Amino acid sequence: MKISNVINALIASFLLATSYSVLSHAGHGSSAPWEACEEKAINEDCSYTSHDKKATGTCQAMNKVLMCVRNKPLETLINKATQPVSEQKQKQKQSVKSLANL
Questions:
Q1: Within a 13 Å sphere around the CA of 92, how many CA atoms are in the beta-carbon half?
Q2: Closest residue by Cα to residue 36 from 74, 69, 2, 78
Q3: Fewest CB atoms less than 10 Å from the CB: which of 24, 55, 69, 83?
């Protein structure tokens, strides 16, 4: 009885582990990877953005259509100023003080 429980647990673990990796390759949420290669040739460099990430790779044939396949790590796009908030506030205070002195 115990051996069957162990076997069932191992099978369940295996199925959970493999199903997660399958879901991670379920597809793209946008058409950006295909649009990035619309006017490019196979193996040509490409890139596209999705939300706040930039993907960079090469155009590869998928079902007779070119698609940008990522071969580099995702880059996070920063839309905010690169200064820390404390420095920004300090500069704002200095500019307000200089106006007050006028």
A1: 7
A2: 69
A3: 24
| Residue owning tokens 């820390």 | 84
CA distance 81 to 71: 28
- The three-state (H, E, C) secondary structure of the chain, written as one string: CHHHHHHHHHHHHHHHHHHHHHHHCCCCCCCHHHHCCCCCCCCCEEEEEECCEEEEEEEEEECCEEEEEECCCCEECCCCCCCCHHHHHHHHHHHHHHHHCC
Q: What is the pTM of this model?
A: 0.50
Report the alpha-carbon distance of residue 102 to residue 63 in Å, rounded: 69
